[in-house]
C-alpha cells in the first residue's frame, strides 16, 4: 500500500507542536493490536479458519471507538492505519471517544446468514474481553450493518448482561437511533454542499461520481441528488455504471436492498457499464470515493477530472495521489471531516444508551 496522507499530516502537526520523539512515537503507534483465529464449521461441514482483528489506537479522550469491517482484503496493516484515523477523527469533531478498528478477513457475500452469525459471535468470544460500553465500542463499516451489531450485542450480553452501548449502528428496537445508517453519507453530502458554495461550484449543475454504492455511497448519492446534483456514475466491487444524463440513484438503491447478494451488474440500469478504474477517470465535477483505501493513487490521480474530491471512505487517496491532485489545484475534503457524520450520530446513540432515555428523531437530525 502507498503511504497514507495521515502519516505526513501527523509529522507536520507533531513538528508544529514541538513534540518529543518519544511523544511522536506514542501518538503514532497503537495501544493494542490483536489477531485471533476463528474456526467456522461451514454449512457443508467443512472447517474454515478466518483471521479476526481488533486494533485499539488510543483511548486518551474516551473509550476506543471504530468500525468492524468484513472484507476479504483486510490485514493488520489496514486496521492499524484505520484505527489511528478514528483517533484523529473523533478528536477533530470533539467527541469523547478514542480510536479503534477491527474486523474479519472474510467475504460476507460468500457466507450464508447462519455462517455470518456464527462467525460474528465467535469473533466476540475471542475479543469480547476488549469490548465494553466504556472500553471499546464497535460500529458498522464495510461489509457490516445493523444485523452484525445485533449479533455482537447478543454475544456480549451472554457474559456481561444487556449493555446496548457496547455497539452503535444497531436497529432502533435494540437502542439504535433512526438516521444512523444514513448519517455518514448525509454528512458527506452536507460537506460537499458547503465546499461547493465556497468554491463557486454550482451543485445543481454539478456532475457527481461516487465510487462504492454501499452504506456511505448510497446515502451520499441520495442526499446530493435531493440537493439537485446530477449523479452520473456509481460503482460497487464488481464494476461501475455511468450515464452523463444522470442515474436514478434512489430506485437503484431500493433495487439493491432486496438482497445483499445483488450487485449493480445484476440490475438493468440505463447507462454504460464500465470498470471501477474507468469510473475514477470519467468526466465529472465532484468525485466521492466511498469504498476502499488507496483507490486514488500515483497511477491514476493525474487522470481524475473532478474539481472537488470528497473522501467518503477512509484513506481513499494515497499521499502521492494527494500530491498530484493538489498540484492540479483539485480541492480535497479529507476523510477525518467528510465522513465524521457517522461517528457523530454514533455518539448520540451511545449517549442515549448510557442515559437509558431515547432522544426524539428531530433532536438527532438537528
Ligand atoms: P459498505 O460495505 O456498505 O459498502 C462498500 C461499497 O464499496 C460496496 O458498494 C462495495 O461493493 C464496494 N467495494 C468493496 N470493495 C471494493 C473494491 N475493491 N473496489 C470498488 N468498490 C468496492 O461499506 P460502507 O460502510 O459504505 O463503507 C465505505 C467506506 O466508508 C469505508 O472506507 C469505511 O471505512 C468508510 N466509513 C464508513 C462509515 C459507516 O458509517 N458505515 C463511517 C465512516 C467511514
CATH superfamily of the largest domain: NAD(P)-binding Rossmann-like Domain
For this structure, the CATH topology of the largest domain is: Rossmann fold
Bin the strand percentage. 15-25%
Number of DSSP-assigned strands: 12
Give every kind of bound small molecule, once each.
Answer: nicotinamide-adenine-dinucleotide
Order of helices and strands: HHEEEHEHEHHEHEEHEHEEHEHHH
Distance between the termini: 39 Å
Secondary-structure content class? alpha/beta
Report on the biggest sheet: 7 strands, mixed
- Average residue pLDDT: 95
Low-confidence stretches: none
Number of helices: 13
If classified by CATH, what would the architecture of the largest domain be?
Answer: 3-Layer(aba) Sandwich
List keywords for this structure.
globular, five-stranded mixed beta sheet, binds nicotinamide-adenine-dinucleotide, 366 residues, Rossmann fold, alpha/beta, 13 helices, seven-stranded mixed beta sheet, 12 strands
Layout of helices and strands, plus pairs?
Blueprint: H1 5-17, H2 21-28, E1 32-41, E2 47-58, E3 64-70, H3 76-92, E4 99-104, H4 113-127, E5 136-140, H5 146-160, H6 180-199, E6 207-211, H7 215-226, E7 230-236, E8 239-242, H8 249-256, E9 272-274, H9 276-280, E10 286-289, E11 308-310, H10 319-327, E12 331-333, H11 335-338, H12 341-355, H13 361-365
Parallel strand pairs: 3-4, 3-5, 6-7, 6-10, 10-11, 11-12
Antiparallel strand pairs: 1-2, 2-4, 7-8, 8-9
Helix pairs in contact: 4-5, 6-7, 6-12
Bound molecules: nicotinamide-adenine-dinucleotide.
Amino acid at each position: 500500500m502507498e503511504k497514507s496522507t495521515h502519516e505526513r499530516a501527523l509529522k507536520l502537526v507533531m513538528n508544529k507542536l514541538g513534540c518529543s520523539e518519544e511523544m511522536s512515537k506514542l501518538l503514532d503507534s497503537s495501544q493494542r493490536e490483536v489477531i485471533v483465529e476463528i474456526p467456522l464449521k461451514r454449512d457443508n461441514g467443512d472447517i474454515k479458519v478466518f483471521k479476526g482483528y481488533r486494533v485499539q489506537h488510543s483511548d486518551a479522550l474516551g473509550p476506543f471507538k471504530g468500525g468492524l469491517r468484513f472484507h476479504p482484503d483486510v490485514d493488520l496493516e489496514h486496521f492499524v492505519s484505520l484505527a489511528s484515523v478514528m483517533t484523529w477523527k473523533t478528536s477533530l469533531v470533539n467527541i469523547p471517544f478514542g480510536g479503534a478498528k477491527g474486523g474479519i478477513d472474510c467475504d460476507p457475500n460468500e457466507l450464508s446468514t447462519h455462517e455470518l452469525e456464527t462467525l460474528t459471535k465467535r469473533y466476540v468470544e475471542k475479543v469480547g474481553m476488549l469490548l465494553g460500553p466504556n472500553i471499546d465500542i464497535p460500529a458498522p463499516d464495510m461489509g457490516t450493518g445493523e444485523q452484525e451489531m445485533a449479533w455482537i450485542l447478543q454475544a456480549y450480553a451472554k457474559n456481561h448482561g444487556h449493555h446496548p452501548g457496547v455497539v452503535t449502528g444497531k436497529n432502533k428496537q435494540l437502542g439504535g437511533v433512526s438516521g444512523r445508517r444514513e448519517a455518514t453519507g448525509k454528512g458527506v453530502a452536507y460537506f460537499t454542499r458547503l465546499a461547493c458554495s465556497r468554491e463557486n461550484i454550482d451543485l445543481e449543475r454539478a456532475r457527481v461520481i461516487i465510487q462504492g454504492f454501499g452504506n456511505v455511497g448510497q446515502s451520499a448519492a441520495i442526499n446530493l441528488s435531493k440537493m439537485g446534483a446530477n449523479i452520473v456514475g456509481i460503482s460497487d466491487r464488481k464494476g461501475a455504471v455511468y450515464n452523463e444524463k444522470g442515474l436514478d440513484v434512489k430506485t437503484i438503491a431500493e433495487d439493491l436492498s432486496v438482497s445483499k447478494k445483488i450487485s449493480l451488474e445484476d440490475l438493468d440500469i440505463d447507462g454504460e457499464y464500465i470498470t471501477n478504474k474507468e469510473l475514477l477517470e470519467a468526466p465529472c465535477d465532484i468525485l466521492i470515493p466511498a469504498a476502499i483505501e488507496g483507490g486514488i493513487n500515483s497511477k491514476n490521480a493525474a487522470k481524475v477530472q473532478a474539481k472537488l474530491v470528497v473522501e467518503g471512505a477512509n484513506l481513499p487517496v494515497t499521499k502521492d495521489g494527494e500530491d498530484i491532485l493538489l498540484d492540479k489545484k483539485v480541492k480535497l475534503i479529507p476523510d477525518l471531516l467528510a465522513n465524521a457524520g457517522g461517528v457523530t450520530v454514533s455518539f448520540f446513540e451511545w449517549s442515549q444508551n448510557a442515559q437509558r432515555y431515547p432522544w426524539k428523531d428531530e433532536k438527532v437530525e438537528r
